[in-house]
């Protein structure tokens, strides 16, 4: 039968009462932040205790893993295999007919060894998730078995193995994602029903939540907002083992939450990054991430599960501003429409519509994955309905300005937010430095023999933060055999700095105006850096937390001479 928002509605199993957090359904995986596909970690315990008590399973990234203490931002040592031939170890699935399942054995790659089945997980008498089952690997547990369920390790090859031959590092921020294997077996793109205390919430399908948890998206999304509260005193330091994102000063955005158009543009770009990524990962079920076509004005505009809660809908300022957002071309002379950054800030804060949409669809006794739960709200089906709508009205605003969604400025803005999401995921879970890649061709020249070793040395530690993936300031200085030296140089020469005001990173023949040299040698503070627009001046010593320059005098001289001689690229 037809659903009220246009999709063919396949009847979902009526959900018994579920009185547990959803996290134990799926095992957490291992993230390689710039990899399209990654091996999963062994499945965790699943299930709900018979009496209704929760058997908690920590979500990916919040287990209290230690974070670095020197103040520097993290970087991945390498990206995960995308074409390697290994099967994963674990990976959970959800089976409505059999309660909560155990480790599933989802394949980790697109070629090579086939996936092996994981052990079926035990279920409880607590109920299940009413949604489409995942059949991408492993057998599910039988209904009505003991509480907890055994975790199973599946997969016939070691993590990161080479059963399929050489692997390739995929930078998902630049190249996008390949479809996730579970997209082929997901059976619905309608809301999955999550029931607790006789209240029903609507979530995206379990396979999507499993992917987001494995890639630490829930926590990274929260920390994206959290790090923008550093100057307001509203930072939450209770998550991820007491993580304080504000101490990573090179990651703290100059554009703090609600403080100007810069934050408004980043708010729009970050959510577009997430929407685009999910559509790439789940192309057959991308309808889950399709936003409202217009601001909801009547009950039939929302999914059937929420129509009974429509009440009087949106009234007053919310209704007025929702209509304005739908038609920005008619309001371009009004406050909040001066620029797309200003428009983003207006949508996010001053108009009230963002908050109104978030808190219209919440359940008072079922908030584990609700829109009001800032830690897990991206699991919610309505999150993507509302943010998908915001993404659409952003395009309408740009069209009114004569701009297109494919313009380079938007690509750059989305890329920057993808990078920061990856960096924040690494703050949450520092042990994500896993994966393999294809070594770059051997090159020669002064940069290879004398300059790159300066960055990769154990004393200077430059590539600890400026590695091949999730690099701080979007600057990669090596850190893996997979990074070509010529690519490093190309990204330095005559390229603007991220936190060096008017300076470029490397100006051939002019080391005294090359931000890389000034920062590495401790001369940045006296170089006369001037903030230019959104580009601030971060003049402190590197690596973060250093009290003296770590480069030897010989290394400083070598770096200066390389730039003075023209910053020649290797061959």
What does this structure look like?
The structure is a single chain. The chain has 571 residues and is mostly helical. The protein is built from 15 helices and 4 strands. The protein has a two-stranded antiparallel sheet with strand order 1-2. A two-stranded antiparallel ribbon has the order 3-4. The radius of gyration is 25 Å and the shape is elongated.
How many DSSP H or I helices?
Answer: 15
- Report, as a whole number of angstroms, the end-to-end distance: 63 Å
Indicate the mean pLDDT. 74
Helix and strand string, N-terminal first?
EEHEEHHHHHHHHHHHHHH
**Structural class given helices, strands, pairing?**
mainly alpha
Total strands: 4
Arrangement of strands in the largest sheet: 1-2
Low-confidence stretches: 1-168
For the sheet with most strands, the description reads: 2 strands, antiparallel
User: Which of globular, elongated, flat, extended, rod-shaped describes the shape?
Assistant: elongated
The percent range for strand residues is under 5%
Helix percent band: 25-40%
Cα Rg: 25 Å
Assembly classification: single chain
